[in-house]
Design a protein that fits this description.
Belongs to the GSP I family. By secondary structure, this protein is of the alpha+beta class. It has 1 helix and 4 strands.
Length: 123
């Protein structure tokens, strides 16, 4: 019976493959962690813009039309693009008010970072 010392070439290659897959998974998860705080800050500012827009509409007692109304505002030194619309509900005197906020213009394919929904009574 032979007594082997050390690892064969095949065992070394398998071990390298396993360690490289583990390293790739670790790098990918670290990449997601690095992007997290910036995304969270953008979402927070977008939430503030949506809330500001919602308060402004409530103060004006706006009965929201069913078509989108678009605009932009400044927050934290950046331009944020918002849009809002009314959504029909079960009751004719009650309508949902939906506000969406994006970091890019809607015409350029902006996707909402946040969506805020509330309900409005007919004035």
């Amino acid at each position: 019976m032979k007594n082997y010392r050390g690892m064969t070439l095949l065992e070394v290659l398998v071990a390298l493959a396993i360690f490289s897959l583990a390293a790739l998974a670790l790098l990918q998860s670290l990449g997601h962690l690095a992007l997290g705080p910036g995304r969270l800050a953008d979402k927070t500012y977008a939430d503030w813009v949506a809330e500001n827009q919602m308060v402004e509409l409530r103060l004006q007692s706006v009965w929201p039309p069913l078509a989108w109304t678009q605009g932009s505002s400044e927050q934290a030194g950046r331009t944020w693009y918002w849009r809002w619309r009314g959504v029909e509900g079960e009751l004719p005197e009650l309508r949902a008010l939906e506000v969406e906020v994006s970091a890019t213009p809607w015409q350029a394919g902006g996707t909402p970072l946040t969506v805020l929904r509330s309900y409005v009574m007919r004035p």
